[in-house]
Specification:
The structure holds two protein chains of two kinds.
Chain A lengths: L7 H24 L7 H6 L6 H12 L2 H14 L6 H26 L4 H9 L2 H33 L6 H50 L2 H11 L9 H19 L2 H9 L3 H11 L2 H4 L1 H14 L5 H4 L2 H10 L3 H42 L5 H23 L6 H12 L3 H9 L5 H20 L9 H19 L4 H11 L2
Helix pairs in contact in A: 1-8, 1-17, 3-8, 3-11, 3-12, 3-17, 4-14, 4-17, 5-10, 5-12, 6-7, 6-20, 7-8, 7-17, 7-18, 7-19, 7-21, 8-14, 8-16, 8-17, 8-18, 9-14, 16-17, 17-18, 19-22, 21-22
Chain B lengths: L11 H13 L13 E2 L2 E2 H23 L5 H11 L1
Antiparallel strand pairs in B: 1-2
Helix pairs in contact in B: 1-2
Classes of the chains: A mainly alpha, B mainly alpha.
Keywords (chain B): Membrane, Transmembrane, Transmembrane helix
Subcellular location (chain A): Cell membrane
Protein name (chain A): Sodium:solute symporter
Chain lengths: 495, 83
């Protein structure tokens, strides 16, 4: 990507961002020296995150640099059909209403640290816990990989190739590992706040600059009316099905992200959690909505780009805006620094949850249950570092478009939803049905995706989810849960 | 006075409203002409989707605030006790 403002200013801003993140880690470490003895303190910030920090750390799980760089090209290609990106982020909050209230209460009651620990508590089955843990680790790994690739591309673009892809990835990964290691959830959440603010500021400046420089929505609409009226039109049959399936897939999928679930446990209290969600319900307009408009303005600003060219749309628009005057120049540098920071903030959240599942659920529950918390923590951190190392090697060969992998991780992660949500309310849910459902759903969704099959235009993850859900429900109705098990489940999920 | 515990999932009315709003944020009910009418450069159907989305967000905020009450009272009491 050729950016007009790439070069030394980009390097300066990246160094500044890197230093801020690092200082956050060091300060957190100095202020909370005892957190390395306790899983609760390290992975959940001692269950004490307040509204502002909790909000931004939830924000970082849902909105990444990809939202800013990857969504406008989609809006550019699809036109108003991509307006779906606004309601699908709202759907995530609707999905939270299904399970977050009770999960928060139970998390508090049983001192839960990871989502996998909830499965263990509820189903008391090694099979279910391990399967769910592996699905989450796989999904999180993919997710992390995607972020690493994006960091490299971002740094390469912002510095005009002066800093090569590999150096960019290694620089930010090392910083992320250091502050994550030093401060755990606290570091992650504080840096998320700083990164979120930088991103929001930059996106708004880009919007303002684009409107001034290229003209607003009416100008773009005139262009579309003349040359591509389909981009203004009401979505047709398959378009509506795709819209619907995105709303359901992303609504449920992003709500059951393991790192998002973990943040429910980290809330200081119920009121804090509710307020954070309430703010999140409005963020789609300020983020997805704004980047959507930028993409639509791009239709008029840079007409007739090929799919590959359109992927560079945000860079082209930001370059044009930056060349207007010095304020926009620095705003665009901040934006691109913010994009990279936002990617780092998503990556660190994912990595922390990845480590916590290793520490608490695989190592801590099955491999060495008698280990001290300090040792469990250390193992989780080390495996996390090793996983990042492997993923970096994979990231040297980045895949083409980001969108496909984005759908891929959802398809696996979403399969934990029936066990998670039904398990909270239905004490007759049968463990074997849950296991079979989760496994079948994963296989169906993965096979369909790998072989490129699709049916009725509905996302593959949803077909897997549907099969998973049917097996869970029908299986539980056919196989009877013993009176003792039912009573136990009732005890666990009762408030 | 002790307020009753409230859990959104148990309130059927909430889900009827959410169901209706969900139906409204899907673009299945527009005549084709809504793609031709523009409001400040935005097609009419998209304007309606945006309005429906705002309503959805507003309703979610309302439910979060008033219909989710499981721990809050105890936590507030604990806080006061601690002071």
């Amino acid at each position: 990507m050729e950016l007009a403002f790439s070069g030394w200013s980009g390097i300066v801003i990246l160094l500044v961002y890197g230093l801020i993140m690092l200082s956050v880690g060091v300060i957190t470490f100095l202020r909370n020296r005892n957190i390395h003895q306790s899983l609760d303190e390290y992975y959940l910030g001692g269950r004490g995150l307040g509204v502002m920090v909790l909000f931004f750390t939830f924000f970082a799980t849902q909105y990444s640099g990809n939202t800013v760089v990857g969504y406008p090209p989609s809006a550019y290609r699809l036109g108003y059909e991509y307006l779906v990106s606004v309601p699908f982020f709202i759907m995530i909050i609707m999905a939270y209403l299904l399970f977050a209230p009770r999960l928060y209460s139970l998390g508090k009651k049983y001192n839960l640290i990871t989502p996998a620990q909830w499965f263990e508590k509820r189903f008391k089955s090694k099979g279910v816990t391990i399967l769910a843990s592996l699905l989450m680790l796989y999904g999180l790994g993919n997710y992390l990989l995607e972020q690493l690739v994006a960091i490299g591309q971002g740094v390469d673009g912002l510095t005009g190739g002066t800093v090569p892809y590999q150096v960019g990835v290694v620089f930010f990964v090392i910083i992320m590992l250091i502050y994550g290691w030093l401060g755990g959830m606290r570091s992650v959440a504080y840096t998320d706040t700083m990164q979120g603010i930088a991103l929001l500021f930059g996106v708004f400046m880009l919007l303002i600059g684009s409107i001034i420089y290229f003209g607003g929505l009416p100008t773009s609409a005139d262009y579309m009316q003349a040359y591509s009226p389909e981009k203004l039109g009401v979505p047709d049959g398959p378009g509506v099905v795709n819209w619907f399936s995105l709303l359901v897939l992303i609504g449920i999928g992003a709500a059951v992200y393991p790192h998002a679930i973990q943040r429910i446990f980290a809330a200081k209290d119920e009121r804090t959690l509710k307020r954070s969600f309430s703010r999140m319900a409005w963020m789609p307009f300020l983020t997805a909505g704004v980047v959507f408009i930028i993409g639509i303005i791009g239709i008029n600003a840079f007409p007739d780009l090929s799919t590959a060219e359109s992927e560079q749309l945000v860079g082209m628009m930001a370059s044009a805006v930056a060349s207007q005057n010095v304020i926009f120049y620095w705003a665009m540098v901040l934006l691109f620094g913010g994009v990279i920071a936002a990617i780092v903030s998503t990556a660190d959240s994912v990595l922390l949850t990845f480590s916590s599942i290793i520490s608490n659920d695989l190592y801590g529950s099955y491999i060495n249950p008698n280990a001290s918390e300090r040792k469990k923590l250390l193992v989780g951190k080390l495996v996390g570092v090793a996983a990042v190392g492997i993923l970096i090697l994979v990231a040297w060969f980045p895949p083409g478009t980001l969108y496909q992998i984005f759908v891929l991780k959802f398809e696996v992660l979403i399969q934990i939803a029936p066990a998670l949500i039904l398990g909270l309310y239905w004490n007759r849910l049968h463990t074997k049905a849950v296991f079979t459902g989760m496994l079948s759903g994963t296989i169906v969704a993965s096979v369909m995706t790998i072989f490129g099959w699709s049916y009725l235009g509905v996302a593959n993850g949803l077909w897997g989810l549907l099969i998973n859900l049917i097996i869970c429900v029908v299986g539980s109705l056919v196989m009877s849960v013993s009176v003792v098990e039912e009573e136990e489940a009732k005890q666990v999920i009762g408030l | 006075m002790k307020k009753a515990k409230k859990e959104p999932i148990k309130n059927g009315k909430i889900w009827i409203v959410l169901g209706l709003l969900f139906a409204m944020v899907n673009p299945w009910y527009f005549p084709e002409s809504f793609g031709e009418i523009l409001v400040y450069g935005v097609p009419l159907w998209a304007v309606i989707i945006i309005i429906a989305s705002v309503l959805l967000s507003a309703f979610l905020s309302y439910v979060l605030k008033y219909h989710w009450m499981l721990e809050e009272e105890e936590e507030e009491a604990e806080k006061k006790g601690a002071k």
